[in-house]
Fold this sequence. Notes:
The structure is a homodimer. The first copy, chain A, is mainly α. Chain A has one domain: Orthogonal Bundle (Farnesyl Diphosphate Synthase). Chain A contains 15 helices and 2 strands. Chain A has helices at residues 3-24, 33-43, 50-61, 69-87, 104-108, 110-128, 131-134, 139-152, 157-168, 176-201, 206-239, 245-248, 254-258, 260-280, 286-297; strands at 97-98, 101-102. Chain A has a two-stranded antiparallel sheet. Chain A starts with a helix and ends with a helix. The interface between A and B is large, with 58 and 59 residues.
Amino acid sequence: MDSREFKEERDGKVAQIEALIQSCLPEEKGYAKTVIGAMNYSVLSGGKRLRPMLMEETYRLFGGTGKVVEPFMVALEMIHTYSLVHDDLPAMDNDEYRRGRKTTHVVYGECMAILAGDALLNYAFEIASRAFQIEPGNENVGKAFSILAGKAGIYGMVGGQVADIEAEDMGDQVTKEQLLYIHANKTAALIQSAMMIGATLAGATEQQIADVERIAYNVGIAFQIQDDILDITSSLEVLGKRVGSDEKNHKTTYVTIEGVEKSKQDVRKLSEEAIALLDSFTARNEFLDALLRALITREK
Amino acid sequence: MDSREFKEERDGKVAQIEALIQSCLPEEKGYAKTVIGAMNYSVLSGGKRLRPMLMEETYRLFGGTGKVVEPFMVALEMIHTYSLVHDDLPAMDNDEYRRGRKTTHVVYGECMAILAGDALLNYAFEIASRAFQIEPGNENVGKAFSILAGKAGIYGMVGGQVADIEAEDMGDQVTKEQLLYIHANKTAALIQSAMMIGATLAGATEQQIADVERIAYNVGIAFQIQDDILDITSSLEVLGKRVGSDEKNHKTTYVTIEGVEKSKQDVRKLSEEAIALLDSFTARNEFLDALLRALITREK
């Protein structure tokens, strides 16, 4: 699959996922319509829909063909969205713009943004529970539910957010272990959730699900380190000096701890391990291969 | 069952529920320990544990004897707790005390209180998903999940919160219909969730579950109207004039719309209908009868 083919196929898939998400959005009417408006504004923000895409492709990889994956695809994107809405709040990162659009609390007020985030998290589980009606007797649906909740909470994304916030006040006291904990939970956990739910719903074995968890971990960590590398090297290219935004903020990153060269090596190692694990499955999904490679090796 | 027997039995049940909740709390360790501390502080606030109690008793009423109800009992209490933590936030009601203790954001800061609420809501579904391991083949567990999420979200509690917040700025423009919507969702929805999940897990019929939904609606609405009545009449008794806190705040309540006498009649009507429905079941749970009666007819 060449780069043009990949992009065409990806754009087609994004459009399909957008349509699926649209079909699940609550109608803006009744006494709760303000918060529903805030929810829909937040969800329809032009995201890359990476998590639902990874879920669906992993589901296909392991032979899944049904519609039971769809409620979980939408649910995970809603969980991702709620986390952005709450992250942007004045008491958290206090961001006024995201992807060029005003953030939810700027448009709807802080109170409504808190409630919209709560509503999205809750609605995620409400949507996901539709999977029980699609395949009532399928025990894997219950397992998928456990993964969805587990990877989003204190032993997943929320845990990573908390550690990240506390790291902000620690300057260079942040350790590599702590940084890996943050990336593993704030970033990798929802990628793990996506791929593990896809594998679980398709009936993958325990070993395959464990391998998928490892692949997603490596992809998430490599993605984040690559982000840190690009923050420094792109500044170097453009400005001729090292003033990445992380460095300006005196933020400890993988690169400030390990240096650029070691960081690049580690990205390569994590990527190769992930690809090798993916290749070890007898089944193939060429698009998923290309998608994971694109994620890890991106240059901007 | 006389009043002393009822209170003794109730206190014993509260203690059992406390122990159950304690056994499910996350351990305060690791990089996420601050938010776990905030979660546990919020949950261990000395609440009446009314919702888990109603769930368990309704489960017993319909012949339930297993442990599958326990994760849902804890989950519902966590959903109730998260809603209080977020309600108390500066951007919402800005309350510094609840039940005589400092609120979560006062102790842990606003940022950690938002995350603790998010974590509690998420952890609720994580705990509830343990029910799939207890009874893997039981399709009612999936149905219970749908009820849990549905009654907590925009078509339940969150919807009621939003309408309540918007009503605050509307003064006497608030209609009876709007007020009933607020009570039905902000108050009654989680009582419905409790009783409907109990009935569902015990294998009650669709008709029985619908009747239970109606009973819980009546109890929730009657409870709330009784609250409004007590706000006015207790002020009358103590101060000799009508200065209930709702009236001082120019808040529209059921009583300001309908007057005290009509409100008392409506509480009676709602209660009688609820009791009649409960009596229509062939099964009996004397403690549940007493609990519902105590809720509706309380004098303070």
